[in-house]
Amino acid sequence: MSLSKWLPMPLHSLLLFIVWLLLNNTVAPGHLVLGAFLALTIPLLCAPLKTRQPKVLRPLLALRYIFRVLGDIVVANVEVAILVLGPMRKLQPAFVAVPLDLSGDLPITLLASTVSLTPGTVSAEVSEDRKWLYIHALHMTDEQGLIATVKSRYEAPLKEIFGC
């Protein structure tokens, strides 16, 4: 049998062993044995739960994406503050269905999280077939404009980052 079958996550095992010894503040033989036992068994039990995630193919683009989202959050905070301080009857809340070109759970989750992090919009649901992202907007005057913004500012970079 291969070593990876008995030690599926060697770095995690080492980290668990070290943390166990540090938490107990001892290197007594009993704690060495118990720490080694836990360091081997916990990753073995957790290995079947591990799912493969797509690799980040363009890390610099990912960094640029993070800064873009942070900037959009600041701008959206100001816009939402202006809307909320104004007359409430002028708000036009709406739900929008955004067609998805992304594949994979992680990229879709990142897109939905990005939309929810940006004030004024919230991801309501992803369709079962993973073809639509339903977004609630606090104030919307142009549905196609919102869809185009989500697709160009967030979905397109995520497609490049993950190559999907």
Automatic annotation (TrEMBL):
Bilayer topology term:
Multi-pass membrane protein
Q: Write the record's keywords in alphabetical order, separated by commas.
A: Cell membrane, Membrane, Transmembrane, Transmembrane helix
Keyword Transmembrane appears in the UniProt entry? yes
Intracellular or extracellular location(s): Cell membrane
Q: Where does the sequence pass through the membrane?
A: 65-85
> Entry's Pfam families?
MNHE
Q: Which domain of life is it from?
A: Bacteria
Query: PANTHER family given for it?
Result: NA(+)/H(+) ANTIPORTER SUBUNIT E1, NA(+)_H(+) ANTIPORTER SUBUNIT E1
- Give the family from UniProt: Belongs to the CPA3 antiporters (TC 2.A.63) subunit E family.
Q: What protein name applies here?
A: Na+/H+ antiporter subunit E
